[in-house]
Structures are given as C-alpha cells and as structure tokens.
Design a protein that fits this description.
binds ligand TLP; 12 strands; three-stranded antiparallel sheet; Aspartate Aminotransferase, domain 1; 374 residues; 15 helices; seven-stranded mixed sheet; globular; 2 domains; single chain; Aspartate Aminotransferase, domain 2; alpha/beta
Length: 374
C-alpha cells in the first residue's frame, strides 16, 4: 500500500492513519509482541518529529526520549539503541573484559538468541544457572561464581531477564532482584538487567520500574515489544556507564543520525502503553486457560504471569512446527520454541476475539490430529 502521511502543514486524516495500523486482515499474529504496527498517533508524531544529528547529540526528539527514560527509571542517563540485542551487547561489553564470564539463566535471551555475541564480540563466556521458572536465586548464582584464582576465568557480570521470555514471561519479585544486586555488589560483580519486557513485569507486580530496577547497574528495555513502538530499545544507568555505552554503540554501528523519526514513536509508546499492558496479560491468561482444556496440550495457567504463553504439545501427536503450520493455514500464527513447545505472545494488535479465534483453531487442529493418529 502506498500512502502519504503528511503534506506540508496538512495533517493526514487520523482515521486513515488508524487504518494503516491495522494488522493483516484475518490474521491473529501471536508469534511475538514484536509484530505490532505503529498507531496513527505514532505515525503522525514520526512525520512531524523535530530531528537533528544524534551522533552529534543534536536530535531533540532522541534527547527528549533519553531524558524521559532516565527519569522513569530513576537513573542518571539513558541511550537510545536500535535493538534490544545491541543494548544487551553494549552493556556486556561495557561491564566486562575479554576472558570474563557472564552469569545468566539457561533460557535467557543473551544466552540463546543473540548469536553468541557476548563471546563473538565481547569475548565473554556465558555461565548458565537454571532457576525455577527462569527466576534465579542468589544461591543459584553464587554456586557458579568463579573463585578468584589466577588460572580461572573470572566472573564479571550477572545478567538477569525480567520478564523471563522463554520461561513463559515469568516475573522476578523485586525483593529477589534487590537481594541478588546487594550480594553481587558485595562480591564485586555488576548486574545488568535485560528488561526487554520490564513494563510487563511492572504491570504484573503493580509496581513502578524505578524501584524495581534500582539495584541494577544497567537496564535495557524495549520500546518495540509490548509497548508497541516500531523500532528501538533504551539503555539506562549512570552517566559514566552511558558515556561508555555511547562509544560502543558507535563502534557496533548503532549511531543513528536523524533518529528522532523513530524516537517520536518510542516516546508515545513509553508514555501511553504501560497503562494498557494488563489487557494483554488478561488475554494471555484466557489463552492459557483455554489451552489447558484442550486434550493433548499442556500448560499450567497459574504460571502465566504476563503476556507470554508457552505450552507443550508432545501429547497432541504433532511437533511444534507441525502445529504452528497447521494453525497458520487458519490465520493463527504461533511460534515453535522447541520440538514440542509452542509460544503465543499477546500484544496491542490482538484483542479478546482474536484470542478466542486462536483457541477455536487450536482445538480444531489438535482434535483432528488426534483423530487421525488414533
Ligand atoms: N525477543 C524476540 C526473539 O528474539 C526471541 C521475541 O520474539 O521474543 N531480550 C529479550 C528478553 C527478548 O525477548 C528479545 C527479543 C531481545 C532481548 C532482543 O530484542 P531485539 O529483537 O530488539 O534485538
């Protein structure tokens, strides 16, 4: 579709802009919360954004977004980065030296889905610990810290993930994060928080992100996931940390020049979206409850705490890929995450009716497969 957003001073028709946002007709895309389309308001703000060269620090919209992010997290400074992966990598690079180890949860994004960048680029080894439902305790972390012996590689950083995506969007109690940070600092270690979905965690806990993250030395959060912006993530921390991070962002190719056009959408996402995340969480709960009633599919709905629903299909007579392919034909898009594991993620472009459709299609497909196998 080709369209004009704004011509000169003439504003685009808001209804037309809303229409452009519409997800693919007839499709319930639950593969991820990364798939959302920018709202009409975001598109308008993008078209009208004041911009400058951000590598010179001269983009007023980026500067505004960074100031707002720092304020919201109660940190000294912030940095706009193109992606969550880059934000995590820059943080790891900033806090470590080549040859260090980074402690992270087995299922964490930095361990599984960042192309081993912490090793390939930052020169670090992931040292994994397994937490119940993806939530680590200090004891589990302490057990994998390297002793201070010259012939051992040294632990430099602990990387927590809140919510823990591949554990099913599970949420850290804030006291747990505080406890881990206190012990880590006493042991001379830094804590980076992959808070790609920290606002989902905040919605679950009914808390604000600043007290939830006060012990973390650095936080990365995504504007382009549950918050619904088309592009971008933020890093927050001390001024000194952000100064170094800015240098590594440029080194990794992330200096973005007139980035105000995307920061403008990010600002709207940051101000407006956190307040609606409970809707996605209620929809996820509904999906989990419906899935638990489908013979052949397994999930404990009590464990679904945010917008991510991961279920097991090993008793459905089909692999996760087969199941995703089968529902896809009916306009329901899901993501396989292991041989018999399927993920559904709710977001602002899927409403309750979409979730009900997904459940009906899942039921139909699984029932059919079971009949065929019987
Ligand atoms: N997660 C994506 C996939 O890469 C798995 C998704 O669909 O959930 N941290 C966490 C916890 C993430 O879930 C993701 C993306 C990232 C970092 C990376 O963000 P981007 O995609 O912006 O680089």
């Amino acid at each position: 579709m080709s369209y004009t957003v704004a011509k000169g001073n003439q504003r685009a028709d808001p209804d037309e802009l809303e229409e452009m946002r519409m997800p693919l007709e007839g499709v319930v895309d639950l593969r991820s919360d990364t798939v959302t389309r920018p709202t009409g308001e975001m598109r308008r703000a993008m078209a009208e954004a004041e911009v400058g060269d951000d590598v010179y620090g001269e983009d007023p919209t980026v500067n505004h977004l960074e100031k707002r992010a720092a304020e919201l997290f109660g940190k000294e400074a912030a940095l706009f980065v193109p992606t969550g992966c880059m934000g995590n990598l820059i943080s790891i690079k900033t806090w470590t030296h080549h040859g260090n180890e980074v402690i992270c949860e087995e299922r964490s994004h930095v361990n599984l889905y960042e192309l081993a960048s912490m090793s390939a680029i930052a020169g670090c080894m992931p040292r994994v610990a397994r937490g119940e439902d993806g939530i680590l305790t200090w004891k589990e972390i302490e057990a994998v810290i390297r002793p201070k012996i010259y012939y051992d590689s040294q632990t430099a950083l602990i990387c927590l993930e809140n919510t823990n995506n591949m554990a099913g969007g599970t949420v850290y109690p804030t006291e747990r994060v505080d406890e881990i940070c206190e012990h880590a600092h006493a042991a001379g270690l830094k804590v980076h928080l992959d808070g790609a979905r920290i606002f989902n965690a905040a919605a679950t806990l009914g808390e604000n992100v600043a007290p939830m993250t006060k012990g973390a030395d650095s936080v990365m959060f995504c504007l382009s996931k549950g918050l619904g912006a088309p592009v971008g993530s933020m890093m927050v921390g001390t001024k000194a940390f952000i100064e170094k991070a800015r240098m590594y962002r440029k080194m990794f190719g992330g200096g973005m020049r007139q980035a105000g056009v995307i920061a403008a959408a990010g600002l709207i996402a940051l101000e407006k979206s956190p307040g609606r995340l409970h809707i996605d969480h209620e929809n996820a709960k509904r999906l989990a409850e419906g899935i638990a009633e489908i013979p052949g599919l397994r999930i404990d709905p009590k464990k679904v705490r945010s917008n991510i629903v991961i279920f097991d299909c090993s008793r459905a007579g089909m692999t996760a890929v087969e199941l995703c392919d089968a529902v896809h034909v009916h306009g329901v898009w899901a993501q396989d995450t292991a041989l018999y594991s399927v993920r559904l993620v709710t977001h602002c472009d899927v409403d309750r009716a979409g979730c009900e459709k997904a459940l009906a299609v899942l039921k139909e497909v699984v029932t059919k497969a079971q009949k065929a196998g019987a």
